[in-house]
Amino acid sequence: MYCVLIVDDEEHLVESLAETTDWSRMSVSTVHKAYSGEQALDILKSSQVDIVITDIKMPEMTGIELIEIIHERWKKVKCILLTGYSDFNFAKQAIKFKATDYLLKPVETEELEASVTQIIAGLREEWGRIASYQQAVSAIKENLPLLKSNLLHDLLQGKKIDLPSLEEKMALLEMPFSTEDSLALLLIRMEGTFVEYDYHTLSLMEYAVGNIAAEVFADRFWIWIGKDPHDYLTMLVKPKYTPDAQDKNTLLELKAGELQRSVQLYLKGRISVLVSSWFGFPDELTATYRNSIGTLRQLAGSEDELVITMNSLTFAESSIVERLYEPPLLTVLLESARWDAFREKVSRVIDELETRWSDSYEHIMEAYFVISGAFTYIVHKNGWRFFELMGNDHRILDTSRMTTVKALREWTYRVLDKIIEESEKGRKDNRQMLIGKIQAFIQEHLYADLTSHMIAECVNLNPAYVSRVYKLETGESITEYIFRLKMEEAAYLLKYSDKKIYEISGELRYQNPQYFSKLFRRQYNMSPQEYRDAMHRSG
C-alpha cells in the first residue's frame, strides 16, 4: 500500500482532494495533509510518503521550492504539481526538479486519479527492478566478505541449516566449500599492542590480518574468514590439493607460523594461533569450535605468540546441554515475543535432557538456570516482579522442586504462559491508553488545524504507526474519527446555537461553506439548513 501527501495553503482544497478521491482503489492506504511547505517537510521527516501532490503558489515556501528539497533529500518520492497558471516557466522548473506530473487547477478527480495510478504503476515497476535477481546478485557481490563472515558465525554457534540450503548459500557466495569437505579450523587471538587499540583501529587491524592470511595460505589452501563472539578471528581452511595426512598437518602448522611472523613483521603486533584437527564439515564444526575455544583458554592462558595444534590432544566429551546455547538464544526469542519458537526450542532442550541427561540433576539445573535467567531478564525488562507475576505460586524459584525433567518442563511452560498473558494484557492496556490520549487530544483541539504529525507528537510516536494502531484498535481511521466529531459538533451547534452556517463552518476549520455543506449532507443525508429546520420543528 502507498502513502500520499497533499500540500496546499487552501485547506478546503486539501480536504476536498482527500475526501472525494477514491484512494483505496489506487492502493493508497494513508493520505497525509499539510497546509504549508514546512508542515509538508515535517511529515516527510517522520512518515512514509510515496507521492506528494503540492500546489505551486503558496506563501513562505512555494511548491517548486518544496519539490527541490524533496528531490535532494527523498529521491524516490514522486511529485505532482498543481497550479492555476498555464505558465511554461513553471513547467520548466518542474521538469528540472523531476516532478512526475503537472496538473492545472481546478483538478478533475478523474485526471488526478489517472496521474496517481500511472505513478503507482511506475513505482511498482521501479521497486520491482530494485528487487530483481540481478540487483540482488550485485548487492551480494558487494557484501561478500560480510555475508561469508555472518554465515560462518551462525554455523560456529550451532545454527541448524539443512544441507541443500547450506550448499546453495555457499554457491551464491562463490565459496569453494561443500558439505562433504574435511576442513580445519584456526582461531586467531589478537594480542600485545592490538588490545590497546580503539574499536575502529582494531577492526582495521583485523581486516589487515585477514588479508595477510589470504596471502600466506593462497598457494595451498582455500580459506573462509570470520569472527566469533569472543573476538577471535576464525578461519576455515581446505587444501587445494590432496596431500597425505602428515604433509597436510605439517604444512598447516607451517602456514600458521608464517602468518604469525608476517603479522609481527608488517603490523608490529602479536597473535596466537590455534590449529584444530581435521573434521567433517558442517556436522563436526560446532563441536570442534567449542573444543578449540576451551583448548586456547586452557593452554594459552595469558601467554602470547603461541601456535597450538590439536592433533595430538585428546578431550573429554562435552557435557553441556548443547541445545540451550544454539541460536537463537532464549532471551532473543522472549524479547521478540516469538512464543511458539520459544516453546519449540525448550522442547528440543527437554528432548536432549531426556535422551542424554535424564538422571543428571546437574544438567537439569543447568537448563533450569539458563531458562530462569531468560525469564528473569524479560520479567525485569518489562518492569514486573516474578512473585507478583505468579500470584499465589510463591515457590516459583524454588530449586528444590526441580529434580526431574518433567518438573522442569511443567515449570517452564507455566511461567511462559503467565508471561504471555501479562504481555498481551500490557499490550492491550498500552494500546487502549494510547487511543485514549489520541482521542482526548483531538477533542481538545477539534477547532484547530489538526494534522497527523501533530497528533503523533502528542504521544511521541511515528505518525504511520499511530494511524495503523488506531485503525486496528477502533475500526476507523483517525481522519474518519475527526470527521465524525466535527460533524457531530456541527449538528450540536445547528440545533442549540443561533450561529450562521458559514460561522460554524469556519470554526470547524472548513473555510469553504459549500464544501462543509457537502460533507454534512454526506453524513446526515440533508443539508445543514435542512437539519436545523428539522431539529427546530421537532424541538
TrEMBL record:
Residues carrying 4-aspartylphosphate: 55
Species of the source: Paenibacillus faecis
Keyword Phosphoprotein: yes
Subcellular location: Cytoplasm
UniProt record, GO biological process: phosphorelay signal transduction system
Annotated protein name in UniProt: Response regulator
CDD domains hit by this protein: REC_YesN-like (cd17536)
Cross-referenced PANTHER family: HISTIDINE KINASE-RELATED, TRANSCRIPTIONAL REGULATORY PROTEIN HPTR
Domain Response regulatory positions: 3-120
GO cellular component: a single term: cytoplasm
